[in-house]
Amino acid sequence: MELVSLQDMAQTAVPGSSLGNNHPTYIYKMVLLGSTSVGKSSLAYRYVKNDFKESLPTVGCSFFTQTIQLETATIKLEIWDTAGQEKYHSVCHLYYRGAHAALLVYDLTNKETLNRAKQWLMELEKEFLPDEIVIALVGNKTDLADEREVAAKDGEEFARSRSLLFMETSAKSNHQVNDIFMAVGKVAFGIHVILTPNWEMGTAMETQLVRGVLESE
Ligand SMILES: Nc1nc2c(ncn2[C@@H]2O[C@H](COP(=O)(O)OP(=O)(O)O)[C@@H](O)[C@H]2O)c(=O)[nH]1
Ligand SMILES: [Mg+2]
Questions:
Q1: Which domains does the chain have, with CATH numbers?
Q2: The organism sits in which domain of life (predicted)?
Protein backbone atom coordinates (compact mmCIF):
# COMPACT_ATOMS: atom_id res chain seq x y z
CA MET A 1 0.00 0.00 0.00
CA GLU A 2 1.24 3.39 -0.88
CA LEU A 3 0.23 6.81 0.26
CA VAL A 4 -1.12 8.98 -2.49
CA SER A 5 -0.36 12.67 -2.36
CA LEU A 6 -2.84 15.38 -3.26
CA GLN A 7 -1.16 15.91 -6.59
CA ASP A 8 -1.05 12.20 -7.38
CA MET A 9 -4.69 11.92 -6.53
CA ALA A 10 -5.67 14.63 -8.93
CA GLN A 11 -3.94 12.68 -11.64
CA THR A 12 -5.03 9.20 -10.69
CA ALA A 13 -8.56 9.76 -9.43
CA VAL A 14 -10.33 8.22 -12.36
CA PRO A 15 -14.07 7.58 -12.55
CA GLY A 16 -15.41 4.16 -11.72
CA SER A 17 -15.29 2.02 -8.65
CA SER A 18 -16.29 -1.41 -7.45
CA LEU A 19 -19.64 0.04 -6.39
CA GLY A 20 -20.50 0.95 -9.94
CA ASN A 21 -20.87 4.70 -9.52
CA ASN A 22 -18.66 7.43 -10.91
CA HIS A 23 -16.67 8.05 -7.77
CA PRO A 24 -13.15 7.10 -6.89
CA THR A 25 -12.84 4.93 -3.81
CA TYR A 26 -10.30 5.76 -1.14
CA ILE A 27 -9.25 3.28 1.50
CA TYR A 28 -8.38 4.42 5.00
CA LYS A 29 -6.90 2.25 7.69
CA MET A 30 -8.35 3.07 11.10
CA VAL A 31 -7.02 1.44 14.25
CA LEU A 32 -8.79 1.04 17.57
CA LEU A 33 -6.63 1.60 20.63
CA GLY A 34 -7.42 1.59 24.33
CA SER A 35 -7.40 -0.53 27.47
CA THR A 36 -9.06 -3.93 27.62
CA SER A 37 -12.84 -3.80 28.09
CA VAL A 38 -13.37 -0.16 27.18
CA GLY A 39 -15.55 -1.34 24.30
CA LYS A 40 -13.33 -1.22 21.20
CA SER A 41 -14.73 -4.41 19.70
CA SER A 42 -18.26 -3.43 20.66
CA LEU A 43 -17.93 -0.06 18.91
CA ALA A 44 -16.66 -1.72 15.73
CA TYR A 45 -19.43 -4.30 15.92
CA ARG A 46 -22.09 -1.66 16.49
CA TYR A 47 -20.84 0.45 13.61
CA VAL A 48 -20.46 -2.35 11.10
CA LYS A 49 -23.28 -4.74 12.14
CA ASN A 50 -25.50 -2.30 14.04
CA ASP A 51 -25.75 -4.75 16.91
CA PHE A 52 -24.48 -5.20 20.44
CA LYS A 53 -23.48 -8.42 22.20
CA GLU A 54 -22.50 -8.59 25.87
CA SER A 55 -19.56 -10.74 24.97
CA LEU A 56 -17.86 -10.72 21.62
CA PRO A 57 -15.53 -13.54 20.62
CA THR A 58 -11.87 -12.65 20.46
CA VAL A 59 -10.74 -13.22 16.94
CA GLY A 60 -7.15 -13.16 15.78
CA CYS A 61 -6.02 -10.01 14.06
CA SER A 62 -9.16 -8.79 12.42
CA PHE A 63 -10.51 -5.88 10.51
CA PHE A 64 -13.93 -4.87 9.36
CA THR A 65 -14.69 -2.73 6.36
CA GLN A 66 -17.41 -0.16 6.12
CA THR A 67 -18.15 2.20 3.27
CA ILE A 68 -19.11 5.83 3.50
CA GLN A 69 -20.66 7.42 0.42
CA LEU A 70 -19.78 11.06 -0.04
CA GLU A 71 -20.91 13.27 -2.87
CA THR A 72 -17.59 13.15 -4.65
CA ALA A 73 -16.05 9.92 -3.48
CA THR A 74 -16.49 6.66 -1.70
CA ILE A 75 -14.53 6.08 1.48
CA LYS A 76 -13.78 2.57 2.58
CA LEU A 77 -12.80 2.35 6.23
CA GLU A 78 -10.71 -0.63 7.20
CA ILE A 79 -11.32 -0.80 10.94
CA TRP A 80 -8.61 -2.74 12.75
CA ASP A 81 -9.44 -4.24 16.10
CA THR A 82 -6.96 -5.80 18.49
CA ALA A 83 -7.17 -9.41 19.57
CA GLY A 84 -6.80 -8.39 23.20
CA GLN A 85 -3.03 -7.99 23.10
CA GLU A 86 -3.41 -4.55 24.75
CA LYS A 87 -3.79 -6.53 28.00
CA TYR A 88 -0.08 -7.34 27.81
CA HIS A 89 0.89 -3.86 26.58
CA SER A 90 2.11 -5.52 23.45
CA VAL A 91 0.25 -3.85 20.62
CA CYS A 92 3.16 -3.63 18.25
CA HIS A 93 3.79 -0.81 15.86
CA LEU A 94 2.98 -3.14 12.95
CA TYR A 95 -0.62 -2.91 14.11
CA TYR A 96 -0.84 0.80 13.52
CA ARG A 97 1.72 1.11 10.76
CA GLY A 98 0.23 2.90 7.79
CA ALA A 99 -2.87 3.95 9.72
CA HIS A 100 -4.69 7.06 8.53
CA ALA A 101 -6.88 7.32 11.60
CA ALA A 102 -7.05 6.12 15.18
CA LEU A 103 -9.81 5.95 17.74
CA LEU A 104 -8.40 6.24 21.26
CA VAL A 105 -11.13 4.69 23.34
CA TYR A 106 -11.59 5.00 27.08
CA ASP A 107 -14.37 3.85 29.39
CA LEU A 108 -15.96 6.88 31.04
CA THR A 109 -16.74 4.77 34.14
CA ASN A 110 -13.03 4.14 34.66
CA LYS A 111 -10.69 7.10 34.97
CA GLU A 112 -7.58 4.97 34.62
CA THR A 113 -8.55 4.10 31.05
CA LEU A 114 -8.39 7.78 30.10
CA ASN A 115 -4.82 7.93 31.43
CA ARG A 116 -4.03 4.88 29.35
CA ALA A 117 -5.51 6.57 26.29
CA LYS A 118 -3.17 9.51 26.90
CA GLN A 119 -0.24 7.08 26.86
CA TRP A 120 -1.44 5.63 23.56
CA LEU A 121 -1.50 9.13 22.21
CA MET A 122 2.16 9.57 23.11
CA GLU A 123 2.99 6.36 21.27
CA LEU A 124 1.11 7.53 18.20
CA GLU A 125 2.89 10.87 18.35
CA LYS A 126 6.22 9.01 18.21
CA GLU A 127 5.16 7.13 15.09
CA PHE A 128 3.27 9.78 13.15
CA LEU A 129 3.60 13.41 12.23
CA PRO A 130 0.56 15.46 13.28
CA ASP A 131 -0.71 15.73 9.70
CA GLU A 132 -0.33 12.05 8.96
CA ILE A 133 -3.07 10.67 11.14
CA VAL A 134 -6.51 11.73 12.31
CA ILE A 135 -7.02 10.91 15.97
CA ALA A 136 -10.27 10.89 17.89
CA LEU A 137 -10.68 10.50 21.62
CA VAL A 138 -13.79 8.46 22.41
CA GLY A 139 -15.39 8.18 25.85
CA ASN A 140 -17.53 5.05 25.63
CA LYS A 141 -20.41 3.72 27.80
CA THR A 142 -22.57 6.85 28.19
CA ASP A 143 -25.43 4.51 29.09
CA LEU A 144 -23.75 3.88 32.47
CA ALA A 145 -24.44 7.43 33.67
CA ASP A 146 -24.54 6.45 37.37
CA GLU A 147 -21.05 4.99 37.23
CA ARG A 148 -19.40 7.87 35.39
CA GLU A 149 -15.88 8.76 36.64
CA VAL A 150 -14.81 11.06 33.82
CA ALA A 151 -16.79 14.24 33.19
CA ALA A 152 -17.52 14.98 29.55
CA LYS A 153 -15.68 18.29 29.84
CA ASP A 154 -12.50 16.56 31.04
CA GLY A 155 -12.39 14.38 27.95
CA GLU A 156 -13.30 17.28 25.74
CA GLU A 157 -10.74 19.67 27.21
CA PHE A 158 -7.95 17.15 26.87
CA ALA A 159 -9.00 16.43 23.28
CA ARG A 160 -9.11 20.12 22.44
CA SER A 161 -5.69 20.75 23.99
CA ARG A 162 -4.21 18.13 21.67
CA SER A 163 -6.34 18.91 18.59
CA LEU A 164 -8.16 15.59 18.67
CA LEU A 165 -11.73 14.96 17.64
CA PHE A 166 -13.86 14.04 20.62
CA MET A 167 -17.13 12.24 21.20
CA GLU A 168 -18.83 10.29 23.93
CA THR A 169 -20.54 7.14 22.74
CA SER A 170 -22.41 4.06 23.81
CA ALA A 171 -21.97 0.91 21.77
CA LYS A 172 -24.76 -0.58 23.87
CA SER A 173 -27.45 2.05 23.33
CA ASN A 174 -26.08 3.08 19.92
CA HIS A 175 -25.26 6.62 20.94
CA GLN A 176 -23.12 8.59 18.46
CA VAL A 177 -21.30 5.52 17.20
CA ASN A 178 -22.02 6.16 13.57
CA ASP A 179 -21.22 9.84 14.09
CA ILE A 180 -17.71 9.34 15.35
CA PHE A 181 -16.68 6.88 12.62
CA MET A 182 -18.24 9.17 10.05
CA ALA A 183 -16.53 12.28 11.42
CA VAL A 184 -13.13 10.60 11.46
CA GLY A 185 -13.62 9.20 7.96
CA LYS A 186 -14.55 12.63 6.65
CA VAL A 187 -11.63 14.39 8.32
CA ALA A 188 -9.22 11.74 7.00
CA PHE A 189 -10.59 12.48 3.56
CA GLY A 190 -10.03 16.19 4.08
CA ILE A 191 -13.44 17.44 5.01
CA HIS A 192 -13.57 19.96 7.79
CA VAL A 193 -15.98 18.74 10.43
CA ILE A 194 -17.30 20.99 13.14
CA LEU A 195 -18.35 19.26 16.33
CA THR A 196 -20.78 21.42 18.29
CA PRO A 197 -20.69 21.45 22.11
CA ASN A 198 -23.49 18.90 22.32
CA TRP A 199 -21.27 16.65 20.22
CA GLU A 200 -23.31 16.78 17.08
CA MET A 201 -21.68 17.18 13.73
CA GLY A 202 -22.10 20.61 12.27
CA THR A 203 -21.49 21.98 8.81
CA ALA A 204 -19.08 19.94 6.80
CA MET A 205 -17.09 21.48 4.04
CA GLU A 206 -14.94 19.62 1.60
CA THR A 207 -11.54 21.25 1.48
CA GLN A 208 -8.92 18.96 0.04
CA LEU A 209 -7.92 15.36 -0.28
CA VAL A 210 -5.13 14.94 2.17
CA ARG A 211 -4.32 11.28 2.41
CA GLY A 212 -5.61 7.81 1.72
CA VAL A 213 -5.04 5.02 -0.67
CA LEU A 214 -6.83 5.03 -3.98
CA GLU A 215 -8.39 1.64 -4.53
CA SER A 216 -7.12 0.00 -7.67
CA GLU A 217 -9.78 -0.95 -10.14
N1 LIG B 1 -22.85 -0.68 29.35
C2 LIG B 1 -22.02 -0.76 28.29
N3 LIG B 1 -21.21 -1.80 28.17
C4 LIG B 1 -20.39 -1.85 27.10
C5 LIG B 1 -20.38 -0.84 26.10
N6 LIG B 1 -19.45 -1.17 25.17
C7 LIG B 1 -18.92 -2.34 25.55
N8 LIG B 1 -19.47 -2.76 26.71
C9 LIG B 1 -19.17 -3.98 27.48
O10 LIG B 1 -17.83 -3.87 27.96
C11 LIG B 1 -17.17 -5.12 27.89
C12 LIG B 1 -15.93 -5.04 27.02
O13 LIG B 1 -16.32 -4.74 25.69
P14 LIG B 1 -15.37 -5.08 24.45
O15 LIG B 1 -16.01 -4.52 23.25
O16 LIG B 1 -15.03 -6.52 24.42
O17 LIG B 1 -14.08 -4.23 24.86
P18 LIG B 1 -12.60 -4.27 24.25
O19 LIG B 1 -11.80 -5.16 25.14
O20 LIG B 1 -12.13 -2.86 24.34
O21 LIG B 1 -12.71 -4.76 22.84
C22 LIG B 1 -18.20 -6.12 27.36
O23 LIG B 1 -18.82 -6.76 28.45
C24 LIG B 1 -19.19 -5.24 26.64
O25 LIG B 1 -20.47 -5.80 26.61
C26 LIG B 1 -21.28 0.27 26.26
O27 LIG B 1 -21.35 1.21 25.46
N28 LIG B 1 -22.07 0.26 27.39
MG1 LIG C 1 -11.79 -6.38 21.90
A1: 5-216 (3.40.50.300)
A2: Eukaryota
